[in-house]
């Protein structure tokens, strides 16, 4: 089951992955993601569309439904992506 919590899509990882597979992705190293989680969270909350966060072990995958949100994320966090 996939749920919408605010602007975040959550739920079973396989279903979320399937639901968001055509969205705009960003890969981050887990240590970078979790170290900067507060700053990243602020950026994600300001997104216009929906997003999801998938921890796949070797990297954390962020997906955005809107390309403008991806662009904004890169502008703010380009040093860490």
Shape: globular
Task: Identify low-pLDDT runs.
Answer: none
Q: What fraction of residues sit in β-strands?
A: 25-35%
* Pattern of helices and strands: EEHEHHEEH
Strand line-up across the major sheet: 3-5-4
Please count the beta strands (DSSP E, at least 2 residues each): 5
Helix content: 40-55%
How far apart are the first and last residues' alpha carbons, in Å? 29 Å
SS-based class: alpha+beta
Number of alpha- plus pi-helical segments:
4
Radius of gyration: 12 Å
Count of structural domains: 1
Average pLDDT reading = 93
Biggest sheet, open or closed, and with what strands and sense? Answer: 3 strands, antiparallel
Offer a concise description of the structure.
The chain has 81 residues and is α+β, with helices and mostly antiparallel strands. It has helices at residues 13-19, 30-35, 37-45, 67-77, and strands at 2-5, 8-11, 24-28, 51-55, 60-64.
């Amino acid at each position: 089951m996939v749920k919408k919590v605010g602007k975040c899509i959550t739920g079973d990882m396989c279903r979320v992955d399937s639901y968001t597979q055509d969205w705009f992705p960003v890969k981050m190293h887990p240590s970078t993601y979790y170290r900067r989680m507060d700053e990243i969270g602020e950026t994600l909350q300001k997104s216009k569309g929906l997003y999801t966060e998938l921890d796949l072990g070797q990297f954390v995958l962020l997906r955005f439904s809107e390309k403008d949100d991806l662009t904004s994320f890169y502008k703010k966090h380009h040093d860490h992506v």
